[in-house]
Amino acid sequence: MHKRNHIFLLAFMLVMNACMQTPENKDGYVHHLNFKPGEEAKIIEAMLSMKDSSLLQLDSGIYKFDNLSLAQLKHIRVQGAGHDKTILDFSAQTQGGEGMRVTDVNGFVIDGMTLRDSKGDLIKLNKCTDVVITNLHAIWQVSDSTSGGYAIYPVMCKRVLVENCYAQGASDAGIYVGQTDSAIVRKCKAFKNVAGCEIENTSHAQVYDNEFWGNTAGFLIFDLPDLSKRGGFVEAYNNYFHDNNERNFAKAGSFGSTWGVGNAAPGSGVVILAASDINLHHNRIINNNAAVISVVSGFFIDEKAGEKMNDHYFPIPKNIHIHDNEMQVADTFPPAMYGHHVGRILVGISQQLNAQDASRKGARLPYIIWDGITTNMLTGKTGINPDSICIQQKEQNLFVNADAAHIGKPGWKPNTDVAPFICK
Amino acid sequence: MRKLVVAGVCLVLLYCCGQTAKQPVNKAFEWQSHLSGYHFFEGALKQLQPRNGVTGYDLATPLFTDYTHKSRFIALPKDSVIRYNGAGLPEFPDSTFIIKNFAFLQPDHQLKLIETRILFKDPADHSWRVMNYLWNEAQTDAEQWISGKRVPVTFLDDNGNEHTTTYQVPNTNDCKRCHINNSILTPIGPKVRNLNFTRKGADMNQLAQFASAGILKGLPSADSIARLPVWTDSVSFSVSERARAYLDVNCAHCHIRGGDAYNTGLFLDYEHTAATPGVMKEPVSAGGGAGGLNYDVIPGDAKHSILVYRMNSTEPGTAMPELARTVIHKEGVALITQWVNGLKK
């Protein structure tokens, strides 16, 4: 072959190589879009016509949106200049259930901005895979029942990381992970929500290094019936849950027998409801002045919970391991709990304990409250601790079996004997 | 000299390289910029007179969208047919267009077109795509429009009452939200069971009409095909049947397994859910949208049923459906109220 041909071939290959390669930046995204405040219409249009592998950058400033949506995409990053710099305001929302909706996106990152004041949820991610929500502040400036339900709301997703986020003002949960498989919530803060964080029907969740305070309830792990999947295998550690004593301002279920966050009594640190395989350890649970840790079954709030049992739902918590937490409470119940139906039940348990046992000398409600409902009621057996509730804590006045099946009935006898539940 | 040649070749190649994006390899489908570009209709566009090969259709029970008047068409590619595939969606051939026009009845009783939504089954991957077209003020054409719009309108409802609202033209992601099931975009309306009725003014069942026109093949005998009740036909159908049909069409595109509201656990599709869906079911993620109520449906007590409460609201975060409704559908709320109040306690 002639030398000239070699050179042609080489040139050809070089150029073709340049052509074939996607013009991918070192950040890994093929398409780059950059906007500043005032370009809201362009941003909406960009999100609607977005291609896979796009990085959308939003410069510093306040953006006003009715709502935003991303759907059916792969490899997308929405990047702000920082939570205190890039602010997306949804107070003009006129339709839809949320400010920002991300549906069916595979590989989604949102980083470095504040979302605020939508009518519904702030950011909902539905059926997404490999999600990273980081350095995101999601807030309602007014914390009451006019706020949307969830601030940060991944649901029916796979592999979700919520990190360095802050949620405030949600009328349900600040950070809510629902019907999801594999989630991490870490280094987040939640303040002035009904629930700081809720892990619901979510399996394989890790919750650590967070601070949830000033909410009605700090942290909830719930399994509810009639949903697409069962939760479980949740580990929560190194968290600081404190001063969650606020009024429950959830609309749905505040009064009545329904499920959900309305049932969380003001002053709840951690509530485990009908969830199994939970490891709660090395948390500081301080000054949540109703119930530090509650472990209750579906029967505690619905006598028909047994009718709802199926592959996706089991009402009785099992394999609950509580160990090495630091716990403290104040001397009195938070005032707000007297106006709450579960709060009043807790007051009743406390009064009953003290009435039946003078040696308690009017001590506070114990730290850990268990409703005492076991699978024995389904199997007819009489085993002690058949559901493997396992507690390794040093505190005095540690535990009460509330004997919830008999509350208000003759023979109701809450029992503070923790011995059967000490980890073997 | 040689260097020059090489540089020249490189330049030519680079030029080609830059051009490839603009030259579709095998004529990939592209949306027209204007509705008129498709030539679905003949004569003045706003008359929506279908040309040969474009077939109008109606639904036994249609979706409510702020009392808009809708006209629906299917445009099949030449020499192709729709194949019967049970009572759900039939099998549409590649390159099918489904066209849905939305118009308001103005106070002067003239119809004014506002938007046209198009579904197209792309032969490239046999999947459906969506596009929206916004009508101009002069009503001469509609322009491709992806980003949604809020349009103030004054219109007459089905009883001739005047309303003023801000109509919400959906953006293309809004379209997808209702049309996606299990991550696949699908048409919603033209299910066989919902086509299986006799249109107003027609002398023949719509499916039979399609079959005789040769555009629908494989149709079994008429009595073996399921049909969705006509929600307004209180002579032929019970309250329960009409209510279920209404919920199916207005709610079940999301409230179905695989749909956008799968996570709520409330399923309202006609064929595959309990006879009384939502009864004593607690809300899961409704937040304030539940209005402080505890159950989706309480038999005999519509007033405290979340389903009715949300249908009867226009507040974002509460209103259901979430999209494409800014006024309350009084007649729909009345039917569902009647149904819930009639459920046995």
Can you put this structure into words, describing what you see?
The complex is a heterodimer of chains A (424) and B (345). With 424 residues, chain A is mainly β. Helices cover 11% and strands 38% of the residues of chain A. Chain A has four helices and 29 strands. In chain A, helix 2 links the parallel strand 1 and strand 2. The longest helix of chain A has 18 residues, at 3-20. The radius of gyration of chain A is 25 Å and the shape is elongated. The N and C termini of chain A lie far apart (81 Å). Chain B is α+β, with helices and mostly antiparallel strands and 345 residues long. In chain B, 20% of the residues lie in helices and 22% in strands. Chain B is built from seven helices and 14 strands. A six-stranded antiparallel β-sheet of chain B has the order 3-4-6-7-8-9, covered by helices on one side. A two-stranded antiparallel ribbon of chain B has the order 1-2. Chain B has a two-stranded parallel sheet with strand order 5-14. In chain B, helix 5 crosses helix 7. The longest helix of chain B is centred in the N-terminal third of the chain and has 19 residues, at 2-20. The radius of gyration of chain B is 23 Å and the shape is globular. Mean pLDDT of chain B is 91; it is low at 9-24. Chains A and B meet through helix 1, helix 2, strand 4, strand 6 and strand 9 of A and helix 1, strand 10, strand 11 and helix 2 of B.
